[in-house]
TrEMBL record:
Cofactor: a divalent metal cation; glutathione
EC number: 2.8.2.-
Cited Pfam families: Sulfotransfer_1 (PF00685)
PANTHER family cross-referenced by the UniProt entry: CARBOHYDRATE SULFOTRANSFERASE 15
GO biological process: hexose biosynthetic process
Subunit (UniProt): Homodimer; disulfide-linked. The relevance of homodimerization is however unsure. May interact with phosphorylated proteins in resting B-cells, including HCK.
UniProt keyword annotations, A-Z: Disulfide bond, Glycoprotein, Golgi apparatus, Membrane, Signal-anchor, Transferase, Transmembrane, Transmembrane helix
Protein name, per record: Sulfotransferase
Length: 570
């Protein structure tokens, strides 16, 4: 029993050696030759002769044993028969265990985890991540398809994550932002204020004005447009604009004039909330004309020279490039104004222009690059400040959905590889930790608009904080200028949603055929089949996100006086 006195349980045969150390069992570490393990001990039978050590991608295995095969084959199998019965049984048992592990590893197809759970635990946490405190195990039976979540490697420190969420929610304070002066806005955007007038044509529902065109008839009016220069996919769009341009100039006093327009209404957000579907249906209305590009992202990104923030800054897109996108709509408004000028000069042109960049409501990531830091890390200027300076009567449409489901949809849409419920859970946990770190030192608004934080978070947690953004928009626009919709309501009753939009925008009624085409067409931009096959998020991830978004949803429901925005049942 000398081997046992050394604290090592040895099992020998001529060709194989398995050793299990009680110390290894306690620390859950593997001891093997050729490694750097501090508690490694040589087998007295095998000594230090040539060995071939079997490993699995160099990963630590919970069996706490390494099977080693002697390189020399001089011994015969007769030696096996000379072993005592107990040693033979131990050897067979070890081989069976190793075979099961290797088979489990191969069948799983995953190189990070094994299907056989370790008998050792890392702490007093449940082995099923979907089983939270206060839940009965029987409640999770409906999630049998998520059985892999039982794997010990997925177990997280859920009490600590809840503490993180509690830390965040305890620091939530919805404060009123300080509005900038118009003169301060002008200093930031001198060129924009020199191009856009303060007053618009009185007989156009959309904000339009005539601007002198000084180019020759051989001049390409879109030659320097940044949308054309930086994106090949927009070139065909501008080919159509070129063909229509020269036939829609106005002539007076030997000069040429073009009609310029801004949108009458904006669909300002949020991403993955059904804005594309709303856009596709609304543009079927004969009185509605959208920008030549569905999402110009000019107010939030292009005017700062941002295409992808991680790629750095390009030349800033001037306001003229943005106005070019509304030229087709401006041509139709111009024709209407010309036709009615002789008969009914005061007749209102009913065409309205819309724009549907889903970043408008929330994306102010560029402020740290162009504006002096505001008070305590809060941005001194926001997108809505500039829109309101030119269009104080603009109409704003917002489509929202359960922020928990929005985040998962956003993850599935933008993640490029390795998408899974497990990966999503990992990213959510990391994002919550990063957000808490910011909240420990800064205000809620400073963290929501923190560009460094937003780029660091692996999922766009901040986009679902609807109440923060809406309250900031309500500091400059009146509540009556907003139409707030829920994707859940839109999906269940498209016709009702569209009628609400028509009424809000003051649009005329549609024929029965037009309405059927608008309301019965399939939904746009739905989840891709390969993403649907991934299934839903884990129940525990959903619960954590509900705890995080809960206070923000409550404030939103309070502002809108509508408990549907609590998303208790979605």
């Amino acid at each position: 029993m000398g081997q046992q006195s050394r604290g090592i349980i040895m099992r020998h045969c001529i060709n194989c050696c398995i050793q299990l150390s009680p110390e290894d069992i306690q620390t859950q570490q593997v001891s093997c030759r050729g490694g750097s393990h501090h508690s490694h001990q040589e087998c007295p039978v095998c000594k230090a002769e040539n060995k071939i050590v079997f490993r699995v991608d160099g990963k630590q295995m919970n069996l706490l044993a390494v099977l080693e095969v002697r390189a020399d084959g001089n011994e015969s199998w007769g030696g096996f028969l000379r072993f005592k019965k107990g040693k033979r049984c131990s050897l067979v048992f070890g081989l069976i265990i190793m075979t099961l592990v290797m088979a489990s590893y191969i069948l799983s197809g995953v190189h990070q985890e094994l299907l056989i759970s370790s008998p050792f635990h890392y702490g007093a946490f449940p082995s099923n991540p979907s089983l939270m405190e206060g839940e009965n195990p029987s409640d999770t039976k409906e999630h049998h398809h998520q059985s892999s979540v039982n794997n010990i490697s997925y177990v997280k420190d859920y009490p600590n994550i809840k503490l993180i969420i509690n830390s965040i929610t305890s620091r939530i304070e919805f404060t009123t932002r300080q509005l900038p002066d118009v003169e301060d806005l002008k200093k930031q955007e001198l060129h924009m204020f020199s191009v856009i007038p303060h007053k618009f044509l009185p007989n156009s529902k959309s904000p339009c004005w005539y601007e002198e065109f000084t180019g020759r008839n051989t001049t390409d009016p879109y030659l320097t447009n940044s949308y054309v220069l930086y994106s090949k996919r927009f070139r065909s769009t501008f080919d159509a604009l070129r063909k229509a341009f020269w036939g829609h100039l106005s002539h007076a006093h030997g000069k040429h004039f073009r009609l310029r327009c801004l949108p009458h209404f904006y669909i300002i957000g949020q991403p993955k909330c059904g804005t594309t579907d709303l856009y596709d249906r609304l543009r079927l209305h004969p009185e509605v004309k959208f920008s030549a590009i569905k999402e110009p992202h000019w107010w939030t990104r292009k005017r700062f020279g941002i295409v992808r923030l991680r790629d750095g800054l390009r030349d800033r897109y001037p306001v003229e490039d943005y106005l070019d996108l509304f030229d087709l709509a401006a041509h139709q408004i111009h024709q209407g104004l010309q036709a009615s000028a002789a008969k009914e000069p005061s007749k209102m042109n009913r065409i309205i222009i819309g724009e549907a960049s889903a970043s408008t409501m929330w994306d102010n990531n560029a402020w740290t690059l162009f504006y002096d830091n505001g008070t305590d890390g809060e941005p001194p200027f926001l997108t809505q400040d500039f829109i309101h300076a030119f269009q104080p009567d603009a109409k704003l449409i917002v489509m929202l959905r359960d922020p928990v489901e929005r985040l998962y949809s956003d993850y599935l849409y933008f993640a490029s590889s390795n998408k899974s419920a497990d990966d999503f859970h990992e990213k959510v946990t990391e994002a919550l930790q990063l957000f808490e770190n910011c909240m420990l030192d800064y205000s809620l608004r400073a963290c929501v608009y923190n560009n460094t934080l937003n780029n660091a978070m692996p999922v766009r947690l901040q986009v679902g904080l609807y109440a923060v953004y809406l309250l900031d928009w309500l500091t400059v626009f009146n509540k009556e200028q907003f139409l707030i919709l829920r994707l859940e309501d839109h999906a269940s009753n498209v016709k009702d949603t569209m009628h609400r939009v028509f009424q809000f925008l003051g649009l005329g009624p549609l024929s029965e055929k037009q309405e059927a085409l608008m309301t019965k067409s399939p939904a746009s931009n739905t989840r891709r089949p390969e993403d649907r096959n991934l299934g839903p998020m884990w129940p525990v991830t959903q619960r954590l996100l509900r705890d995080f978004y809960g206070p923000f949803n409550a404030r939103l429901a309070q502002v809108l006086t509508d408990e549907a925005f609590l998303w208790r049942k979605t």
